[in-house]
Amino acid sequence: MNIKPSPVTLAAFALLVMAIKTPSTAAEAKPQKAIAFILAENEYRAWQTIPEFGQTLEDKYGFKCDYLVSSTDDKDTNRFFIPRMEKVKQADLVVVFARRRALPREQMQILRDYIGSGKPLIGIRTASHAFDANLVVPKQGGSPVAANLALPPDLEQWTTFDQDVLGCRYHGHYEPGIVTVVTVNPEKKGHPILRGVPETFESPSWLYEVAPLAPTTEALLLGKIPGKAAEAVLFTNIDRQGGRTVYTTLGHWDDFKLSAFRRLLINSVFWSLKLDVPKE
Predict the structure, then answer these.
(1) I need a surface site. Which of 64, 113, 141, 264 has the fewest CB within 10 A?
(2) Which residues lie across from 66 on neighbouring strands?
(3) Does an H or E element contain 135, and which?
């Protein structure tokens, strides 16, 4: 017997299909927020870890990610150039994972204009000295020393990026190889960025020295190694233009294997964009 569904049945079925959406389909239905990742360093494999992390932002949360990857060869003069830097102009959020790069003046102006507009920024690990090309910290740790690098006159540095934007003063790091014990600042337990983050975990990132922090910052996570004072390893800042900023001194390639670190980055993306931090 051939039974044909009634028009009413077909209409009800169509409504049911429209109502049942997978998470990815639901994410696509919302206006996409564009994230531009400036990746310009040759020590922490950002060119590998960040796109892998960004895939989660795209697939699970519906963000649109662009990766602006500079040369990782520290002998290559092209390392002082960010391909597709114009993507920053359309970005809703910029993430900086760069180390000791000067930029062509027009590219640096794009970044300055973006920050000057009050839009948010996230800095990872070496972002505190992203655009200070004439200093270097010895491999064994310590304070920065002169790199004696002759820069072409058409390149521009931003040596106070850490103070002007991130709200700290980077002045070196401790000896590599020492595990950093990370703990939640007990005074900030309720902050949205800490949602779903354990109260303590261990990081392979050797500890950075970034104190003192600006009065506009909130230190959410503290890092400790034996015999040294605790340092902030993740904090927020409200920059001079009122933009939300998040900076973490973590970012070793093995940090990206930690669910705690990945969760921190996801939460930071949502918080910086003034979006509700997801439960998972």
Answers:
(1) 113
(2) 36
(3) strand 135-136
What CA–CA distance (Å, rounded) separates 53 from 11?
A: 41
pLDDT value of position 30: 59
Q: Range with the lowest mean pLDDT among 23-32, 149-158, 233-242?
A: 23-32
Whole-prediction pTM: 0.88
Q: Convert the pLDDT of each residue in 48-101 to its tens digit.
A: 999 999 999 999 999 999 999 999 998 888 899 999 999 999 999 999 999 999
Please report where in the chains the tokens 């640096």 appear, as a residue. 108
Give the pLDDT confidence of 82-95 residue by residue, as tens digits: 999 999 999 999 99
The more confident residue out of 186 and 10 is 186
For 160-165, the CB contacts below 8 A with 24+ separation are: 161/127, 161/128, 161/129, 161/130, 161/131, 161/132, 162/128, 162/129, 162/210, 163/214, 164/239, 164/240, 165/115, 165/121, 165/123, 165/237, 165/239, 165/245
- For the chain, domains (ranges, CATH) are 32-171+234-272 (3.40.50)
3-state secondary structure 207-239: CECCCCCCCCEEEEEEEECCCCCCEEEEEEEEC
